[in-house]
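look at this stuff:

>
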Amino acid sequence: MSRYHTLRYRPFVAPSPPDLLVLHAVRLLGYADTERVASRFRLDRAQVEEHLEDARASGWVDRSSFSGRSGWFLTPRGKLEDEHRLAAELDSTGRRDDLRRAYDDFLVLNGRLLQAVTDWQTRPVPGDPLAANDHQDLRWDRRTLATLTEICVGLGPLATTLAGVLTRFGGYDARFALALEEAQHGDHRWVDSIELDSCHTVWFQLHEDLLATLGVQRGAGPA
């Protein structure tokens, strides 16, 4: 019996408290307005706004505006507070080792994802191994999309395992699949655009979620 099958039927795990989800959403999004923060974990906007103001009063988040945009971002104190709460939440489940093993499995897929995004953005030509991909070679793009499809399949059981440890990990596989479907229908932006909930955006957030929860530095090896 596989590890994923064994872990899938663990007892129900209580959802994370809203104030933690709000703080963590700001971290995952990097810079976002109140609406995006609320939508990240499907929270009530008015409640999210209240939690954001409380977090700002505590020095954990701040708000800035530029180029006609306004958004929230995490302060260094807020990052430490987020990590402290995430560690306490994970330890309360008694399943840190399960999450570490899942993270090691994620790293295997992560290497393939990074290569797929590189292949999507570049296509070597004689004299220029890093030439930008103009997406005129459909066979090249189809091969990259096929790799992303394989990654999507692998993400399914991994996401189930993660959500079985902490419910806030739920949904990454569905978001990745939706982005991939849009890309397969011809909208290239859904592979790597930072302006959309693209495959790369979803993957980056999942990676950051795992790193923050486990207290691992980006670029580190297996947990």
Observations:
- Residues 96-214 form one domain.
